[in-house]
């Protein structure tokens, strides 16, 4: 895959095309945009600053993780510059009054403490997903575990660096570490997947298996996607207004109902729209915490969005599992060469039809046909030609039958046709027409193909085996009678 479906979809739109081409051709502009984005999400994270130095929702962690995952160590200078700039801002904002050189040192320490754990985490995730044959659920659990662990490591390193450089006092540690960890974790788990995709559009030269799951299923959301989003947003607003007016911790837990619309989205929309909706809901929560003054409840909200996100993340696997389940079913139920029903499926379908016919007192007939001297065809013309003959013959028979009839390959060159609501006289007419039809075919070079057919009508106590046994013995008689003929039992 050279470029993802998502980026090519975006590229179809003209204004965006030019902007994307410009960014892709200009590493400087990309770096500038990355820096601006990092600073912007850092300021937005500040809306839910729970304790000094600790936002309970910290998008820069997700952005750093995603950038290091997609771009690698090349992104370090930009991340380092961002770390220094926000340290300068924090020094002024908290009125810490460090000297210029000390602020830059603190910024460098913060940068290292922030970047190292996320580089380690993203490199481990990349290694796991690129080199190991992980299933999608295993990739997701790896992502979640690595996100939680690297966020914890970043929390420890950053807080130690802040204390070491005099940006924070050690007394603040106990009140800071948990919201810090939760914030970084939310940044990676809830927003990281969206950042992965967006950065991958800007740096499209590499292919990552884990991103294919997110982007490969693009580009369309269902027509109902916006209504599902509206339901999520309404639920967020209603739960938060409830907390605002009751000011009770109990009512703040209503936010956990968010799992319902998000699981609905996760199970019915593709992965990209799933992670987009999670990011939007979490933005809305942060915005409303700020606007409605709900800082007292913010920890509940952050736990809720993390739980909702991890659940919804697992649901990324559902459309993929459904698709592979469908493929597996098709494989098991269809004969690969002739695209008729497989023996197993034929047996299942025939059993259902036989029971239905017995229940309703309907007629039912079974035809068994087998190509005449097929071994000779293989021997003279080769197995490939034999295969082609089997395919072409089956194609013809399928066209010839009614939609309700069931055609399946019993094995080798022997096929079964089940004719529901058909008595033996009509089945005989069908068999005669079939024989004629096949006689008219020139499937192999200039040679003609012929088949022999055995017919039987269902008796009241028949099952698949007994029905087949009679039809097969009729076929045997047809073969003994010189082939290219029909016998009834
Ligand atoms: N090309 C091809 N040949 C197959 C396939 N499955 C079975 N065969 C061959 O089909 C032949 C079946 O031969 P039989 O039905 O026993 O005998 P026949 O030569 O058709 O003779 P009669 O049935 O008595 O007319 C064997 O040679 C098998 O090897 C297949 O998927 N492709």
UniProtKB/TrEMBL annotation:
Major subcellular location class: membrane
EC number: 2.7.7.65
Highest rank taxon of the organism: Bacteria
Cofactor: Mg(2+)
Membrane topology classification: Multi-pass membrane protein
Keywords, comma-separated and alphabetical: Cell membrane, Membrane, Transmembrane, Transmembrane helix
Protein name: diguanylate cyclase
């Amino acid at each position: 895959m050279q470029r993802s479906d998502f980026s090519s979809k975006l590229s179809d739109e003209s204004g965006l095309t030019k902007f994307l081409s410009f960014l892709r051709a200009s590493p400087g502009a990309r770096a500038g945009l990355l820096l601006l984005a990092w600073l912007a999400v850092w300021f937005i994270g500040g809306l839910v600053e729970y304790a000094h130095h600790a936002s309970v929702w910290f998008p820069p962690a997700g952005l750093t993780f995603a950038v290091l995952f997609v771009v690698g160590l090349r992104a370090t200078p930009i991340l380092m510059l961002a770390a220094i700039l926000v340290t300068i801002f924090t020094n002024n904002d908290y009125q810490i009054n460090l000297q210029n050189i000390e602020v830059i040192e603190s910024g460098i320490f913060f940068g290292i403490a922030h970047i190292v754990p996320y580089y380690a985490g993203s490199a481990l995730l990349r290694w796991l997903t690129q080199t190991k044959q992980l299933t999608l659920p295993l990739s997701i659990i790896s992502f979640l575990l690595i996100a939680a662990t690297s966020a914890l490591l970043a929390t420890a390193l950053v807080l130690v660096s802040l204390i070491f450089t005099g940006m924070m006092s050690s007394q603040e540690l106990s009140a800071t570490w948990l919201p810090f960890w939760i914030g970084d974790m939310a940044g990676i788990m809830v927003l990281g997947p969206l950042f992965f995709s967006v950065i991958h559009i800007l740096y499209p030269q590499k292919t990552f298996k884990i991103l294919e799951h997110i982007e490969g299923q693009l580009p369309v959301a269902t027509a109902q996607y916006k209504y599902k989003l509206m339901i999520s947003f309404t639920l967020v607003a209603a739960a938060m207004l409830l907390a605002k007016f009751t000011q009770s911790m109990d009512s703040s837990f209503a936010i956990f109902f968010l799992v319902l619309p998000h699981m609905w989205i996760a199970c019915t929309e593709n992965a990209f729209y799933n992670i987009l909706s999670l990011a939007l809901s979490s933005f809305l929560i942060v915005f409303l915490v700020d606007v409605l003054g709900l800082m007292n409840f913010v920890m509940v909200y952050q736990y809720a969005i993390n739980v909702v996100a991890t659940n919804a993340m697992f649901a990324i696997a559902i459309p993929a599992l459904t698709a592979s389940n469908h493929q597996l079913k098709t494989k098991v139920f269809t004969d690969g060469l002739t695209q008729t029903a497989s023996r197993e499926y034929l047996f299942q379908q025939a059993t259902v039809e036989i029971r239905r016919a017995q229940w309703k007192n309907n007629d039912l007939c079974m035809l068994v046909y087998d190509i005449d001297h097929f071994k000779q065809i293989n021997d003279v013309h080769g197995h490939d030609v034999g295969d082609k003959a089997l395919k072409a013959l089956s194609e013809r028979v399928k066209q010839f039958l009614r939609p309700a009839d069931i055609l399946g390959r019993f094995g080798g060159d022997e096929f079964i046709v089940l004719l529901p609501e058909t008595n033996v006289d009509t089945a005989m007419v069908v068999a005669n027409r079939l024989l004629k039809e096949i006689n008219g075919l020139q499937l192999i070079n200039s040679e003609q193909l012929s088949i022999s057919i055995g017919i039987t009508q269902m008796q009241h106590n028949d099952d698949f085996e007994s029905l087949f046994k009679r039809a097969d013995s009729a076929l045997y008689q047809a073969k003994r009678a010189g082939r290219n003929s029909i016998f009834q039992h």
